[in-house]
Amino acid sequence: MANKRNATTIVAILAVVVLLLWRPTVIIYGLQAAGLYATIAIPMGLILGIVHIVNLAHGEFMMLAAYATYMLCQSLGIDPYLAMIPVAIVTSAFGFLVYKLTIRQALKAPELNQLILTFGLGIAITQTMNLFFTSQTRKMSFGYVSASIDIGELSFGVYNFVFVGFAILMVIGLRLYLTKTTAGKAALAVGQNPKGAAIVGIDVDKTYGSVFAIATALVGMMGAVFITRSAVFPTVGSPFTMKSFCLVAMAGIGNIPGILGASVLLGISENFLKAFRSLRGWSDIVFFVLIITVILGRSIKGKKA
Amino acid sequence: MKNKTSYAIAAGIAVIMIAFPAFLGAYPLNVARSVMTYMALAISWDMLLRSGQISFGIAGLFGLGSYASALAVLRGGMDPFLSIVFAAVFAGVMAYALGFVVLRLRSMYFSITTLALMEIFRIIIHNLHDFSGGPEGVVLPGVIFKGSASALYWLCLGGLFITIGASYYFEKSKMHLALTAIRNDETSARSNGVDIFKYLLIAFVVTSTLQGMMGAIQVQSYGFTMPDTAFDGNFTLLPLAMALLGGVHSTIGPMAGAVLLGVSAEWLKLQIPYGHLVVYGIIIIIVILFMPQGIVGMVRKASRTGRRSGRKAGASNE
């Protein structure tokens, strides 16, 4: 086992070195994309690991937060980073409300009902936004986004490394929360065994609610950051739901730091295909092939064990 | 006695539906066609759901069928009508091959994988510029039956009747028992000798064939298609909402849901150009939370309790 892991690490390091020499931008942009994927996937991993619900409306929360940021910044003329905290609070309150009104009622229902429920939630949120804002894209531009660095002949944008920073901060913050604070430890216990946790006196319902609120707050923050680099439209969040689920499934449910590694793999392999002009259109397929491989691999491994 | 009347009613409705083109204009016929397409998809989705597997990939098989049919005509010079059969078989064969892998998965993993497969189909079609026309799609040399509105209607109705027939067969044959057993408890079904994989594969292949066929009928009736219309997520969303609203695990439920939602959607589309789909999302949420049995289930329940209380009022001894 240890040998196998060593071999995998060596192969991975070799691949990175080769890529660095041949096409450094693949690594750079791959890491930047990985940061974005990870920041959105980590909150989903939190919900899946503790509440055990696949929230198919996950990306929609980010989209909502991005719209909220857009409106706040347009009307007050402030920077999205200033709007981040209020938007996170609003998104979190909305997430908590959604949890209380809908998801909580379906916790005891079969898993498939929950899946269809959150699917319906996602559609309802997307289409409500479509109703109010139409499908027109909205964008804000900022000077600092186009900051770039030149190293020798290589020139690349550095702004997107912000996402890598946020991803690392999120992992550290959640780790501290889950292992050091009482509420976090309770959440971890509920995630492992809700019945047992209830027996020792943990309020399971309250824990679920707070986990949902924390996760949506994180997504809300990222929605505010997201709008600094991308245009928003009602369906902007949907692909992130799928990508997040893929990354969480790849890392293993409950393994939050693992999401970072999975994001790096996804980000770099996508950008690897984008490096070839003729293959650019195929880069989207990487992720879907990856998700199927991961799911199949896990199910086969699970059968053997 | 009761059975005989319900057969007579079904036959009567069928005759009226066949006769529709005689007294309806082009626009109502067009609406009827889209309702029937969604109805067939809703029924086929429900047929697989009876085994407990939720597919999010209806649009994938639908799009695959439409492209198989369009490309068979365009690149292979096939007869349009024959190409519909070809597309149905093609979707079935694809489902058979994929089924060996996909049907080993359960619950959310199955659902997510079907969704991912749909996206893979779409991206492949999107990128094979020379063969599939790429993002701009393909335009057929002509519409089947020279675009006669009544002929197109009958073609779609034929597809719907085949679907209803298959669903009815699923309900009345051994399939029903096997699929229900799998849905209720896989372990006990297996220990009672149900070949789970075989029945799942049959259900998956049959439903995919039906979805592919409806896709082919759609493309032949419109004469063009693009990746974004053939693999439109609405072909997954709408049938799902219709079946849920009407009541799952039956043939009549998805049909009732499709008529209700299909007709109201057509009206809403005119009222609210953007975001009329919000209604579908809300319906899914409400149905899951408050009426998991759907309309048909509720009606059935109400009639059952009504009969029971009626019997009590008649002071019968039980």
Describe this structure in words.
The complex is a heterodimer of chains A (305) and B (318). By secondary structure, chain A is an all-alpha fold. Chain A is 75% helix and 3% strand. Chain A contains twelve helices and two strands; from the N terminus they run H-H-H-H-H-E-E-H-H-H-H-H-H-H. Chain B has a domain at 27-231. Chain B is built from 15 helices and two strands. Chain B is globular. Chains A and B meet through helix 5, helix 10 and helix 12 of A and helix 5, helix 12 and helix 14 of B.
How does the major sheet of chain A shape up? Answer: 2 strands, antiparallel
Mean pLDDT of chain B: 84
Order of helices and strands of chain A: HHHHHEEHHHHHHH
Would you count the extended β strands of chain A for me? 2
What is the 3D shape of chain A? globular
Strand order of the largest sheet of chain B: 1-2
Report how far the terminal alpha carbons of chain A are from each other: 15 Å
The side-by-side strand order for the widest beta sheet of chain A comes to 1-2
The residue ranges of chain B in which pLDDT falls below 50 over 5 or more consecutive positions are 312-318
* CATH architecture grouping of chain A: Orthogonal Bundle
Compute the average pLDDT of chain A. Answer: 84
> From the alpha-carbon coordinates, what is the Rg of chain A to the nearest angstrom?
20 Å
Major sheet details of chain B:
2 strands, antiparallel
CATH topology of chain A: ABC transporter involved in vitamin B12 uptake, BtuC
Write down the CATH class of chain A: Mainly Alpha
Number of domains of chain A: 1
Report helical residue fraction of chain B.
over 70%
Strand content of chain B: under 5%
Determine the structural class of chain A based on helices, strands and strand pairing. mainly alpha
* Pair of chains with the largest interface and how many residues each contributes: A-B, 44 and 40 residues
